[in-house]
Write a structure and sequence with these properties.
three-stranded antiparallel β-sheet, 52% helix, 9 helices, alpha+beta
């Protein structure tokens, strides 16, 4: 590629044509450039979208890049296209989703052990909503499915990577453990 302006235009074309999130590695290979040039072009392109009064922006999703519309123009967008289906995340779905997000990769059985109830319906609904996906199989008898979050999960919650999830303090974890023991009818003994 000659010059960063052409590199920026090429990245824009690739992201537009792909429609979804594209791995940085795939961009580098398609453009036949090294990381420093790619990083500079991605930074330049992202700044260009943020500085100018544009209807689209470039987002990063866990090392992948995608073009998307700016939230500012959502009202106008829904007048043109069908209103996107809003998925209702019940407490059960949010609880299950948080377990997957923090424990991934995780099996349905592990989710059920944490929740204490069957989670098949909740996991299936989260897969249907494309917030959770199969990420492999556990090397154990029966080879249970391992679940993890998707790019749509990151996009929906406005985070770039799983590192952006809020942490849970050790004190709060102890409170959760105590509450779970009380709910299960176990006696907590202070040591």
């Amino acid at each position: 590629m000659e010059g960063s302006k052409n590199t920026c235009a090429a990245i824009e074309a690739l992201l537009f044509a792909a429609g979804g999130a594209v791995e940085k590695r795939d961009l580098r290979e398609a453009l036949e450039i090294e990381d420093p040039e790619l990083n500079e072009a991605l930074k330049t392109l992202s700044e260009k979208y943020e500085e100018e009064d544009r209807g689209i922006r470039m987002i990063e999703l866990d090392g992948k890049y995608q073009l998307c519309t700016k939230n500012t123009y959502y009202d106008e967008l829904i007048k043109l296209v069908n209103t996107p289906k809003k998925h209702v995340l019940t407490d059960v779905l949010l609880e299950t989703l948080s377990i997957v997000a923090y424990k991934q990769p995780v099996t349905r059985q592990e989710i059920e052990k944490i929740r204490g109830v069957s989670s098949a319906h909740a996991v299936n609904r989260l897969v249907e909503y494309n917030l959770v996906q199969e990420v492999g199989r556990l090397d154990a008898p029966g080879h249970p499915i391992l679940f993890g979050t998707t790019d749509d999960f990151l996009r929906s919650f406005g985070i770039s990577s799983m590192d952006d999830l809020p942490g849970i303090s050790p004190d709060r974890m102890e409170d959760f453990r105590r509450e779970a023991e009380e709910e299960a009818g176990l006696v907590h003994v202070e040591t």
